[in-house]
């Protein structure tokens, strides 16, 4: 008999730190479903990347990432460059679980395990920028040094936006900057406030930021906010809360497979909510690159599109 093997990579510090306690029961459920299963607790930043690479070397059939968006991002970074890529299951345990939300995977360990054991999967697009991979969003804008000095980690670009909206006095720290943005043969060469390269449609709690983003079409949703004054910026940010920003004259919204962003001055890159170095950046959509276990409801949604 061909026994399937699963490797659970979990972040013991994620969210409410609840996973370790549940691990024996989760292992038991995988065993009962016919998997030979083992687990790895991540030890710190970057460890989930190495754990995922090790799982590839050991030819696991399935990798399960239990944690928040940070853990899933690292696991994807460990898998994306490999020729052999195990199927990936998600158990959302983090403070932010945007990607799980985009896939309609519930924040309930047993229900998330049910989805993996049901064995329905879908190949999904992954974003690449320079040498990093992302599943939700990447983006940038010229911020005064404030952003990454703030002690609480800012989760996504749009999380930064929400952050700025909470503290209106912080708003002036987003400054316009000149950038040349090339996408699929087109060029935008002007002053911008920020740009977002969205792969999934659920980012930072703004579920309507890129409402049409599909995870299987091979395209990013590129959203660029042109240079605005403070009043316009606040107006557009509040439009974005209800998904009414895309038709605004100050917003450029296109679908693209390849995007290059070359700013004239220092501009920070944000990848799935983490600081990702400085631009320039070359973004590429890797169409249907990693196979994820998804719930029935998500399969139906993709079928309908
Ligand atoms: N044992 C560990 N101790 C401390 N940090 C860890 C450990 N293992 C992983 N990490 C780091 O924690 C980061 C965040 O993890 P994750 O997204 O899973 O959880 P979260 O609860 O949503 O995040 P956070 O606690 O930062 O709000 C990961 O990117 C990883 O670098």
Automatic annotation (TrEMBL):
Annotated signal peptide: none
One Pfam family here: DAGK_cat
MF annotations from Gene Ontology: ATP binding; ATP-dependent diacylglycerol kinase activity; metal ion binding
Coiled coil: none
Known cofactor(s): Mg(2+)
GO biological process, alphabetically ordered: phospholipid biosynthetic process
Gene Ontology CC, one term: plasma membrane
SMART domains (UniProt xref): DAGKc
NCBIfam families given in the database record: PRK13055.1, PRK13337.1, YegS/Rv2252/BmrU family lipid kinase
Family membership: Belongs to the diacylglycerol/lipid kinase family.
Entry protein name: Diacylglycerol kinase
Organism: Ornithinibacillus halophilus
Lineage summary: Bacteria, Bacillati, Bacillota, Bacilli, Bacillales
């Amino acid at each position: 008999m061909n026994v399937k093997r699963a490797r659970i990579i979990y972040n013991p510090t994620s969210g409410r730190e609840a996973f370790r306690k549940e691990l024996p029961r989760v292992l038991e459920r995988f065993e009962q479903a016919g998997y030979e299963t083992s687990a790895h607790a991540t030890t710190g930043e970057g460890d989930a990347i190495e754990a995922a690479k090790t799982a590839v070397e050991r030819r696991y059939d399935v990798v399960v990432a239990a944690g928040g968006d940070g853990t899933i991002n690292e696991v994807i970074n460990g898998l994306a460059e490999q020729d052999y890529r195990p199927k990936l299951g998600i158990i959302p345990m983090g403070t932010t679980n945007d990607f799980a939300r985009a896939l309609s995977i519930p924040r309930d360990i047993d229900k998330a395990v049910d989805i993996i054991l049901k064995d329905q999967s879908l190949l999904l697009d992954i974003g690449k920028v320079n040498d990093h991979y992302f599943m939700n969003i990447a983006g940038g804008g010229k911020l005064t040094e404030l952003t990454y000095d703030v002690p609480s980690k800012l989760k996504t670009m749009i999380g930064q936006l929400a952050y700025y909206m909470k503290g209106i006095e912080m708003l002036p720290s987003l400054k316009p900057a000149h950038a040349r943005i090339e996408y699929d043969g087109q060029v935008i060469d002007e002053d911008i406030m920020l740009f977002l390269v969205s792969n999934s449609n659920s980012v930072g709690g703004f579920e309507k930021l890129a409402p049409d983003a599909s995870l299987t079409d091979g395209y990013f949703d590129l959203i660029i906010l042109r240079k605005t004054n403070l009043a316009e910026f606040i107006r557009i940010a509040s439009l974005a809360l209800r998904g009414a920003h895309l038709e605004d004259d100050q917003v450029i919204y296109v679908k693209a497979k390849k995007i290059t962003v070359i700013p004239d001055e220092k501009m920070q890159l944000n990848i799935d909510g983490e600081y990702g170095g400085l631009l320039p950046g070359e973004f590429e959509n890797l169409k249907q690159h990693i196979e994820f276990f998804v719930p029935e409801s998500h399969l139906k949604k993709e079928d309908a599109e």
